[in-house]
Amino acid sequence: MLAPKRMAPIPLFFLYKDHQYYLQVSALGVSLYARGETKPLYQLQEPILLAHGNAGNHQTIHLAILKANGELCYVLIPQGGTPQTNVLTQLDVRSTKYRRLILLPRGEMVHIFYAYAHQSIPELWYIEHRLWTGKAWQSMRLGEIVHPRSPLYHVALDSQGNIHYLGMTFQGRQSLLIQNRFHGTFYLWGNPVQTLTIPKEIVDMAAILTPDNTHHLFLAAKDQNGFEIHWAKRFNAQEISGQWQMSSAPIKSVPGPWGSMGSMELFGNLWLLIKADQEYLLRHEGDIWRQTANQVRHKPLELIRLEDKSFYQAAWLEDGVEPFAPLFHQQLGLTPKWIRPEFPHPQPVTAALAIPEHYLNREIVETPVPGKAAPQDVQDPAVGTSDQGSRDPLSQAIEPLLERLSAIEDTLHAAARQIESLEQDNTHLEERQTNQSTLVQELQGQYQAEIQALTAHYQSDIEELSTRYESQIMELKKEQAALRLLEDAITQHEEKGFWNRWFK
Q1: How many whole angstroms from its chain centre is CA 195?
Q2: What are 375-380's contacts with CB under 8 Å, separation 24+?
Q3: Apex 308 CA angle, 307 and 309, nearest 5
């Protein structure tokens, strides 16, 4: 039986308040970075299938990792402490495929969700929930989703700590939305309820639950010309009786091919990122959605944000210039400034410009973030305190050059990190190819020796069985010939009796 096709792991950028983390993921392992740190907080150099992370608080990082050998691991990384790894279970990765691993820590409780489908029925996905109660791990199946592309399900938190589950299943020519709620006080799931019936094929979905307990649902429906993006809302999501209100018209139509869709709430703004023929970023303003930017061809990234009473996970994209940053981070109000490895300034450029050293050592003021106080500008040491209102011509002439050098430096840092990553991947690939070649040769020699030994051992038995079967076949042929003669005789006797009776 062939193993299921594996998907390329997707890196994660996750936030906890003003703390930012980046989980670099590849088929050969994971590396966890924190903003402000020069070295990884955690590394695992083993083949993996899926990985997910989250910050329970600024002191602790949680990771869920599905290794290529089938081990589902939970990793706890305390600040300044030793990471602790717990193997939760051994999963069947040869005949079953796994998708959409989600980790949600909540105080002493830890929630892990994932979807799986057997290769014999690849469109039938089962949603599993594993829960750490503070004393033991529990497991239960939330339900089934039928979808040919991917398991469309989301989880979110309301203001009372309840977890809301949404799953989209395709049935015939319509799509059904299944909904359930995990009670944050009694730690129990309710009964799943079908809440929406959509007479279209839904190829993708995104959902968020905002702090005002409004549940937003975005659906990508296939139509003749491409895809339509529909929007539904449910107010007072903390109550079971809340009903969904679907928008009367699509908020956007895009041509294919379809890529992904993710939604996020940041600083009171609602965002929607669509990847189709282009990459569209939409912002909700009043009663309309405005398209603020579009780009093309960026790598996928999972954008995760955890607050005290909210949890968001969005299919996003990675910035092509700023390392470890989500695409459109400036529009979102994020200013991810990561400490990079030392990279020298371009000496020929600085020498030709003859820039004074104190200008090269100036601090660059960050772009203000909504809700965050802007840092005070650093006074130029070459400017006297008595004339702070004016700026010398040299400062005005050199500042654009400094900004340009900073942008060039950022680009060089990004290129250096990508080159380093590619070199590491190439080194690991060469090592694996060498090991696999040696292993194949050893296995071939071993199997050939075993086949020869088995052939010699069973050769006499095979010859004896062949002789016995040949004699039995000859006897059966003789019996068949005798039976044919007997059948002919019976037939002739019956025909003779028939005609004798007819001419009486």
Answers
A1: 26
A2: none
A3: 95
